[in-house]
Each structure stands twice: as C-alpha cells, then as structure tokens.
Design a protein that fits this description.
Structural class: alpha/beta
Oligomer: single chain
Organism: Limosilactobacillus gastricus DSM 16045
Family: Belongs to the thymidylate kinase family.
CATH class: Alpha Beta
Keywords: ATP-binding, Kinase, Nucleotide biosynthesis, Nucleotide-binding, Transferase
Number of domains: 1
GO molecular function, one term: dTMP kinase activity
CATH superfamily: P-loop containing nucleotide triphosphate hydrolases
CATH topology: Rossmann fold
Number of helices: 8
Catalytic activity: dTMP + ATP = dTDP + ADP
Order of helices and strands: EHEHHEHHEHHEH
Number of strands: 5
Distance between the termini: 8 Å
CATH architecture: 3-Layer(aba) Sandwich
Strand order of the largest sheet: 2-3-1-4-5
Helix content: 40-55%
Bound molecules: adenosine-5'-triphosphate, ligand LXEULUCI
C-alpha cells in the first residue's frame, strides 16, 4: 500500500483517541500494522512534545492568542518535516490525532483570530502536506465534555478550561472547514456508540482505498 495520511479531528471528548485505537486494530487485522505510524498534535516529535507541554500547561495562563497559534503551527512544522513527510515517502500510513483543522477551529474560530488568517499561517507551516482523508468526529459539545468529566484519567489542561461558547465556536469551525473541503473531510456522527463510529470510519476508508478490504501484505 502506498503512503496515506489520515487525520482525526473534533472537539474535546469526541472520541478521537478511542476511534484511532480501533482503526489501528483493524489495520492490524488486514496485516498493515507494520505500516502504521501513529502520531498526534500538538506533539509527535521531541520538539513538538516540548511545545505541547508549554501550550497545555496551566502555567501558560497569560499566553497571547497569536502566540498560541504560532506555537501550534511551529509544532506542526517540525512534525511535518521530521516525521510525517519521511513516513509518507516510505509508504507508511500516518494516523494523526489532530492536525491543521484543529488550529482553524480552535484558534481561528474558538479564539476568533480569523478562520482564513489561521489557515494562511498554517499553510506556511505545512506547505503541500495535507491529509488525504480527515474525519471530523462531531457531537454536541456538552456530550463530549460530559464524557471527559465522567472518565477523565489524564490531567486537566489549559484548554480544557474554556467556556461552553468557546467550544461551540470550535465545533462550528470544524463543520465550516468540512463544508469548504468536502473532498478531504468527512463528518461522522460521534454521538453514536463507539462500534458504530468505528464501522462508519472504516467503511469510508475502505471506500476510498479498496485494497483495505482485502489487503494481502
Ligand atoms: N462513541 C462513544 N460513546 C460513549 N463514550 C465514548 C465514545 N467514544 C469515546 N467515549 C469515551 O469518552 C471519553 C473520551 O474519549 P476519547 O479520549 O477517545 O476522546 P478524544 O476525542 O480523544 O478526547 P480529547 O480531545 O479530550 O483528547 C473516553 O472515556 C471514552 O471511553
Ligand atoms: C492541534 C491543536 C490542538 N488544540 C487543542 C485541542 C485540545 O484542547 C488540546 C490538545 O489536547 P488533546 O488531548 O491532545 O486533544 O489542544 C488547539 O487548540 N489547536 C491545535 O492546532
């Protein structure tokens, strides 16, 4: 199978991590486990993870919105150059937990820095390296936040403490981005049971890449 770049997006608690785990298992079932590169943003590289710590730390309360936007883009640039592009070049399947659409939704729409302005800033960071396929896991904000509150095992981060209206703008940002780029972005109803969400995502992947239905690698 040739290199593929797939990103998973959505508001906090939409189920990205859970769905990605199940999709990686499915890829293993079709004998593609050794081709999978699982990664995340912010982060994905040592430099990116250091930027992640700075971005998500509750000590960064005074961070300016544009500083935040540039730091997400800087983490992304390093990620693209150091990990994503080389992996695609060697025919790996890159599965990324959040990518450029998160910046457009959170910084562009959530922080109201401007949808197009944040897209342009990120164009400089990613160049021509956009996902082949992006899943936006969509659900009412309250549901995602409730899921997190019920099951939280990791620490609360700085962005977890935003208001409901911030997250509602973020959700609209993802949906607007999907409307703008329907070839790349598929919106999935993430309110369904996890098995149904995974089935839907896998179906979309196999539609696009029929070799996934019967991979004999
Ligand atoms: N479809 C679902 N139905 C009910 N609960 C779910 C579903 N998907 C995930 N969950 C649960 O919701 C919580 C958040 O899921 P998960 O960590 O996968 O979301 P996430 O999108 O990665 O969150 P974050 O953006 O905060 O990292 C977990 O406890 C998970 O078990
Ligand atoms: C890539 C990216 C992320 N964010 C936000 C979204 C989340 O609140 C955190 C990351 O935490 P997660 O548990 O890994 O989902 O960062 C953002 O605001 N902008 C971005 O570009």
């Amino acid at each position: 199978m040739t290199g593929k770049f797939i990103s998973f997006e959505g508001p906090d608690g939409a189920g990205k991590t859970s769905v990605i785990k199940a999709i990686v298992d499915r890829l293993a079932d079709v004998k593609l486990a050794n081709q999978v590169v699982l990664t995340r943003e912010p982060g994905g590289t040592p430099i990116g993870e250091a930027i992640r710590d700075l971005l998500l730390s509750s000590k960064s309360v005074d961070m300016d919105g544009w500083t935040e936007a540039y730091l997400f883009a800087a983490s992304r640039r390093q990620h693209v150059v150091e990990k994503i592009k080389p992996a695609l070049k060697s025919n790996q399947i890159v599965i990324c937990d959040r990518f450029v659409d998160s910046s457009v939704a959170y910084q562009g729409q959530g922080r109201q820095l401007g949808f197009d302005q944040i897209w342009e800033l990120n164009q400089a960071a990613v160049g021509d390296c956009l996902p082949d396929l992006t899943f936006v896991l969509d659900l009412p904000i309250e549901e995602g936040l409730q899921r997190i509150a019920q099951h939280r095992t990791d620490q609360i981060n700085r962005l977890d403490e935003e208001t409901l209206t911030f997250y509602q703008r973020v959700r609209q940002g993802f949906l607007k981005q999907a409307q703008r780029d329907p070839q790349r972005i598929v919106v999935v109803n993430a309110s369904q049971e996890l098995t149904a969400v995974v089935k839907n995502v896998w179906h979309q992947m196999a539609e696009r890449w029929p070799e996934l239905k019967n991979e004999d690698a």
